[in-house]
Amino acid sequence: MVSPFFFVEATPCLRPMNDIDIEGLKGIANQLRIHSIAATTAAGSGHPTSCCSAADLVAALFFGHMRYNPKDPHYYNNDRFILSKGHAAPLLYAAWAETGLFPVEDLLKLRQLDSDLEGHPTPRLPFVDVATGSLGQGLSVGVGMALCGRLDKLDYRTYVLLGDGECAEGSVWEAASLAGIYQLNNLVAVVDVNRLGQSQPTAFEHNLDVYKRRFEAFGWRTEEIDGHDVEEIIEVLAAAGLGSQPLVILAKTLKGAGISFIQDKEGWHGRPLSREEATRAIAELQPSAKSGIGHPIAAPSQLPAPKNDPPASYPPTSYKMGDSVATREAYGNALVRIGESDQRVVAMDGDTKNSTYSEKFYKKFPNRFTECFIAEQNMVGVATGFAARGKVPFVSTFACFFTRAFDQVRVAGISLANIKLTGSHVGASIGEDGPSQMGLEDIAMMRTVAGSTVLYPSDAVCAEKLVEQMAQHKGICFLRTSRPKTTVLYNNDEQFPIGGAKILRQSAGDKVTIVAAGVTLYEALKAADELKGQGVGITVIDAYSVKPLAKELIKGAAAQTQNLVITVEDHYAEGGLGDAVAGELSGEGVRVHKLAVRELPHSGKPEELLAKYGIDARAIVAKVKELNR
Amino acid sequence: MVSPFFFVEATPCLRPMNDIDIEGLKGIANQLRIHSIAATTAAGSGHPTSCCSAADLVAALFFGHMRYNPKDPHYYNNDRFILSKGHAAPLLYAAWAETGLFPVEDLLKLRQLDSDLEGHPTPRLPFVDVATGSLGQGLSVGVGMALCGRLDKLDYRTYVLLGDGECAEGSVWEAASLAGIYQLNNLVAVVDVNRLGQSQPTAFEHNLDVYKRRFEAFGWRTEEIDGHDVEEIIEVLAAAGLGSQPLVILAKTLKGAGISFIQDKEGWHGRPLSREEATRAIAELQPSAKSGIGHPIAAPSQLPAPKNDPPASYPPTSYKMGDSVATREAYGNALVRIGESDQRVVAMDGDTKNSTYSEKFYKKFPNRFTECFIAEQNMVGVATGFAARGKVPFVSTFACFFTRAFDQVRVAGISLANIKLTGSHVGASIGEDGPSQMGLEDIAMMRTVAGSTVLYPSDAVCAEKLVEQMAQHKGICFLRTSRPKTTVLYNNDEQFPIGGAKILRQSAGDKVTIVAAGVTLYEALKAADELKGQGVGITVIDAYSVKPLAKELIKGAAAQTQNLVITVEDHYAEGGLGDAVAGELSGEGVRVHKLAVRELPHSGKPEELLAKYGIDARAIVAKVKELNR
């Protein structure tokens, strides 16, 4: 299987082994231990023993191997470091403080409300690319960064520090598999095998051979080392980037290493030392501790910066009103149209590209498309990695399969990641495939994501314009696309600002305001026509922006229709468009009646299902009449 | 092809290899192919080529190996079969029709609204234990069934048929790992390696060695075969259950096998044959096709039935009003209390048992507890497997980590699975660990699950009573538990019916109704006390049942407070308690104002965070005053 990406020859390690101050690194490792213990004891919470097991690894990486400019954590060709075992945050903070980036005294503000040094790392911190803390996600992000490095013709390497317990997460193996397939030799995973999980020892404890066989089977080169032997760590790191495979360093460590009365003992996960214990522990470590301040750090290469500037504008769409085009296909068209001039745009899909139409982008710009195979968790993580490197990744699969990656999307929210998710095949209107393939909860899911934007176009013009908006807007965006073809309603020069809505039908004396989107918008228009024929007027609003909602516009329309609103959505009744409208407008006295799918759907023809689940024109007409008796 | 319908009498004896009619099985396989083609062509949609690749495997399993009573698909000691590659549904339906369970003519009603033969299998059908269709989930369910078989001392084996593309899903490797760890030699996976995914070939095509090395590294015994050589299939199946490891059969197959002009060709995924193509294909297969009707099927052993009857009642709780107990701890207590007499109760956790307190059950009933390690997707699937076998599984982890398993929970809804999920550490009130560990979207997520019940106790008594309710109620239940200790509010004899709520404060002249649950209930009570001191009365409702909501009770209380309601929740504003109340009551004219977490939270002390995010007593008081100016 040919990788679509440019294959970079490995840059050999710039620093000869005998230049590296092993004793100095050991000293720094102990300084990092001291910081981790002191900070968590001061905070009264945290994971000091998880920090101690990885301290030698982190010291070696940060002060003996990685190539980066500690004064400029954002420099685009710095080696990247991802703390996948995010609960070791104090260790990461300590490492950066010891580079001199901020005062070491700040470390004692760990977990305080007014400090950016939170319980788990977030990108409020300049040296944190992505939030971690939900285990098993960092390697996916690393895969994304490694792929992006190739695309941008940069030679930075990406290092991901994982715990052993978190290797039980399937997402780790999704990432491992893709890294093996694409031969990401610019990716290095380091597994801190300290044998003790949270509530008990891991299944494999210190049996490194289990991990070795697994990673090898997934296409990785493996090295097994004593994770407290700094010389060994440096030695295996020197060979990073050689060969054609990603490298995993399996490091046998002790949880709480360095603290004689705690190391390798059960019952110490997530437990800060008492003041007295901390004093004892620090006393053990102090004599050999050394500051990292002034310790030489290898510099990154100077290479041309990637071109990540957005274009001034995009070329226009060219649909004809009345044409019949599915919004999922319009999505594919949009990707190609904006991808031409917007070099930031990359795309990925989970073996559904022929259904989501991301295949159009794949055919036009194959080196900017990543086939992620049937592994949605990893796909979202990969996108998060690309986004952290300044790209604008468009991720597509069936809307219902994004539920597979909800944790990754949730954490992407915490990461303020600039990813764009497009879920196709929404609602019962997909028809015969049945409920396992229907997106019926995606609006609810995506509304909860911190800082998200949730969009739901009805026609091709709107879909394409929203894709433009998504590319220009900073933050997580989700776009719902439908399987069936729908009629083009709008002119090519129509604008669709995020947070807006369109009033498609409105007359004085209208009885009810219908708020709909997607396929149900057309049902609402049919209902409006039918009711008009019976002398009853209804206002019809296309709520293409579910979050943020066009609250004032809807409220204004409702005010002219007895404050009565009917929402209609091809989605469950919980958490979707109806709840969005009711949740925001109920307090203002608007009465919202929800039409939605209220039972587990069945296979059937699309039109049968819209009728059966009460979201077709007939149901809307009936509801309007019921409310106007 | 029309066959007369009649039942096959099972022969209760072991079947030597030379008793197996290989030619007969080949003929049945082709009959299954014919059915799959005819049904999908009639439906105009479906996946005939995915059925054809697996037809020999399914024929061999159903008619040459598995021990079951086809007249009684629910018999508790039947071998179990899970079609993890759920899109091959027509093949499964055909197999069962050919056992005589229902008329083969029914197969042509595939995907019709009035037929139970849906696009992907659901348990509306008696021979389907769990819904499939979202790939990569079947093996987890199989692991649960295999574990349950051991618990129940039954000798049925569980067979899971997977596609090769779906092995990219990390959940497959979570399941594989656990099966290896627990040495589930009563579990057999069969991988239909037909090399062609949906939109392109899989990464490894027919390279069986890749799969072999992976499964071996995960602790499985492996067999590689020609998936169209029925004799080979039968031969390797004969060794199922031998040794101490689970067995995986890696079968090299051709997508569309049996149809000369389609087999192994790209572009045929999910594509029905045209009428003309179907006629040609069936003509190729007909001469060798044989009916399965009358073909002998191996009988299951007769073993004592597992005891899966619920007890008449549970022993009482013994809390003292005013005690300080976290609801997460009460959960642990409840599991032990009901577990004593309710043999159906089993539990599982993802290495958080010391935090969720499921550890109490683990210590008391270790053989009924499954440590699933840090792999939540698989854990939910395992629970679904146990539930399919009549157990009542209680699954626990942090609420936020259930987002990792949203797809599995969604499909469990489609499966009508009787699983009980308890998510701890909800809300910003967990404090210093920060947002990656906070459950802020779990109510929204769980509300969308088909048929779910969503419960949110505030004190220990309520938590324990709700656990009882969950055990007795049929369907998916989700319980939110909090990290901080809270005061016991209720007597031990208080009842908490699902769908109910408790009015804790109410007086004539109350200005607003506050609806809260969990930690915010206590904030509401504090606010009530403070406002009372200022001469303002508020009604306070404990909405421990979020879904179903105590709609009439809340509506009735609101009617006496100017139809004004304030909801307060330790959850995001989207999709939670507030949206639930607004969504249901807005249409009735109730005005709902939501207090909730409206920004990405930060690490800090619990009380600081409740204040910062506007969900503490002070915020409630301020809101009441604002609404009553």
What does the model show?
The structure is a homodimer of 629-residue chains. By secondary structure, chain A is an alpha/beta fold. In chain A, 35% of the residues lie in helices and 15% in strands. Chain A has a 7-stranded mixed β-sheet with strand order 8-7-9-10-12-11-17, with helices on both faces. Residues 1-10 of chain A have low confidence and may be disordered. At the A-B interface, α5, α6, α10, α13 and α14 of A face α5, α6, α10, α13 and α14 of B.
Indicate the mean pLDDT of chain A.
Answer: 96
Report the sheet with the most strands of chain A, covering strand number, pairing sense and barrel closure.
Answer: 7 strands, mixed
Q: Structural class of the helix and strand makeup of chain A? A: alpha/beta
- Could you tell me the strand content of chain A as a percent range? 15-25%
In angstroms, what is the radius of gyration of chain A?
27 Å
Report low-confidence residues of chain A grouped into runs of 5 or more: 1-10
Question: Biggest sheet of chain A, strands in spatial order?
Answer: 8-7-9-10-12-11-17
What is the overall shape of chain A?
elongated
DSSP E strands of chain A, number: 19
Cα end-to-end separation of chain A: 65 Å
- What is the tally of helical segments of chain A? 20
- Helical content of chain A stands at 25-40%
Task: Considering residues with a beta carbon less than 8 A from a beta carbon on another chain, report the largest interface and each chain's count.
Answer: A-B, 111 and 110 residues
Oligomeric state: homodimer
